[in-house]
Amino acid sequence: MKFTKMHGAGNDYVYVDCFQQPIPADPAALARSMADRHFGVGGDGLILICPAEGADAEMRMYNADGSYSEMCGNGIRCVAKYVHDHGIATKETLSIMTAGKQFKLDLMLKGGKVDRVRVDMGEPILQSSEIPTTLLGDPPTDAPLEIAGRRLAVTCVSMGNPHCVTFVDEPTDELVLGVGPKIEVDAHFPRRTNVEFVQVLNRETVRQRTWERGSGETLACGSGACAVCVAGVLTGRTERRITSKLLGGDLQLEWDEASNHVFMTGPAAEVFTGDWPI
Asked: Which residues partner with 158 through β-bridges?
């Protein structure tokens, strides 16, 4: 089976072109084996690029632990790059499906190849029952959460997948690697959650680290950066247009007041291709 390794701001996945080859019979197991950084290709998970009725392609994403994920902001940018650069659809605006939703992506080319992508991530989901979380509020905003002997103020948002955002003085290893895994599986989050630890540098710039549901800490989380943008506005900490500084690079976010849509702009890169024995 042929595969392509790609990343968006260091958030790396193994991509399989299912236009050219069959959809794997057990993608969850395949994700676990291919994403293994010691015995596999290595990555934050597996993404299948599939044909889709009414769209240019469909993204099917599986985390490193094999669990299915509804959305990946960095991943969908890379899908768009692959679709364009490999000739599946060479338009400068693409439509990609994931988890039954359709997303519009505007491509920015450099030397005929996709360099950066602007994604319309749609409207944030703010009702607690749909995020989902049992914390109070629609959405829970600076809600108290007792976890690991700490009391955190958290704001919950879904960008098609659940996020729990907490603003801190500094996103330390102790918080991200120690507290993050505990929040992911906390009972307040029935489908588990991604966790963002955010330091506000100024009203237009934040520093973000993310503990991703099913993958652990990643170098970037695009949907998480969108959730941070929304949470910053809801709590009065940031403007509607911000830059999020992640371990793997910067993403530009905007929560547009007129449309209520969140827009994310960032890089997409192809690293290498290979063959996986099946």
From this structure: 125, 162
The pLDDT tens digits for 125-163 are 999 999 999 999 999 999 999 998 999 999 999 999 999
Distance in angstroms (rounded) separating the CA atoms of residues 70 and 110: 30
Query: In order of start, what are the domains of the chain with their CATH numbers?
Result: 2-120+266-275 (3.10.310.10), 143-260 (3.10.310.10)
- Give catalytic residue positions: 72, 221
> Which residues are CB-contacts of 129 (< 8 A; sequence separation ≥ 6)?
none
Neighbours of 85 (CB within 10 A): 17
51 upstream amide cis, omega within 30 of 0: no
Task: Give 204-221 pLDDT, tens digit per residue.
Answer: 999 999 999 999 999 999
* DSSP H/E element including 114: strand 113-120
Q: What is the DSSP string of 79-98?
A: HHHHHHHTTS---SEEEEEE
- DSSP letters of 135-182? SSSSS--SEEEEETTEEEEEEEEESSSEEEEEE-S---HIIIIIIHHH
What confidence score (pLDDT) does residue 278 get? Answer: 84
Residue 30 is classified by DSSP as H
